[in-house]
Amino acid sequence: MARSRKVTVSTDAHGHTAGWADTELAPTTAPDPTAAAFFDVDNTMMQGASIYWFARGLAARNYFTTADLGRFAWQQLRFRLLAREHAGDMSQAKEAALAFVEGWRVDDVERLTEEIFDELMAPRIWAGTHQLAQRHLDAGQRVWLVSAAPVEIGRVIATRLGLTGAIGTVAEVVDGAYTGRLVGDLMHGPAKAEAVTQLAAVERLDLTRCAAYSDSANDLPLLSAVGRAVAVNPDGTLLRQARQRGWEVRDFRTGRRAVKIAVPSTAAAGLVAGAVAGGLALQRRRRSG
């Protein structure tokens, strides 16, 4: 079977755009074109948050200091706690995400992501979750990652893992560089379910035959949109929901290891709005100085 590669951007009736990028597809002997699987990334496919490890990799390259990283992590922890009291208000996160992408070239972000994945992310991929994804591939089904991270970062991770592609936040690009404006909303909460529904329509998937995997109650809309929902390393709320709804639960964490990875999943996951944005802005000021 021939291999293929494509990048697609779809806009809904409200003008919101969900982007997905397909990696090179592995040939299969018995393709199952109407079924697919969708995997959340942070703490589902990977221990901790992908953007946290990306930020760590940038700090190691002197884009900002370890002190900056800690300060921004604390700021974002405070923001996340406040955000829980005002559920659904993602405006501050969206504004901060703009600072992260502004002025950067897409190829630079992808190159850095490839390097940092190999150094920091690859050792933190949950082998059990990766095996679940591989089972879908072996069955001739396609597998997409679904993440709030920029779609370019998701695409690199998907490529490295041999998956079909990634659905992620779309940033506007002009002449190969990010403008600092997002196209649509952050790929978070209900936006994930909407994007998967759009993708299913384009790819002619039967969502009742599809599966979704996540660790977070934030992804209940996504998990509810498919025929088979699986809670992977679930938080307390999702675990309760999974038990009530009869969903399958997979937990690859054990003892102290589970406690250790809880830190980057909470305090550090918001670093896309803090450490990365602030650190890169600081680095740009240093370079201009």
Molecular structure report:
Helix 4 packs across helix 6. 47% of the residues lie in helices and 18% in strands. The strands form two sheets. It has an eight-stranded mixed β-sheet with strand order 1-2-5-4-3-8-9-10, sandwiched between helices. By secondary structure, it is of the alpha/beta class. It has a single domain, classed as HAD superfamily/HAD-like (Rossmann fold). The N terminus and C terminus are likely disordered. It is globular and about 45 Å long. Strand 9, helix 9 and strand 10 form a beta-alpha-beta unit. It contains eleven helices and ten strands.
**Radius of gyration, CA atoms, in whole angstroms:** 18 Å
Annotated CATH architecture: 3-Layer(aba) Sandwich
Please estimate the helix content: 40-55%
Largest sheet: 8 strands, mixed
End-to-end distance:
54 Å
What is the overall silhouette? Answer: globular
Q: Give the number of DSSP strands.
A: 10
- The average pLDDT value, as a whole number, equals 77
Measured by DSSP, the beta-strand proportion falls in 15-25%
Structural class: alpha/beta
At CATH level 3, the topology is Rossmann fold
* Low-confidence spans: 1-18, 23-28, 79-88, 256-282, 284-289
Number of helices: 11
Order of helices and strands: EEEHHHHHEHEEEHEHEHEHH
Q: Domains counted in the coordinates: how many? A: 1
The CATH homologous superfamily is termed HAD superfamily/HAD-like
CATH class identity: Alpha Beta
- Strand arrangement across the biggest beta sheet: 1-2-5-4-3-8-9-10
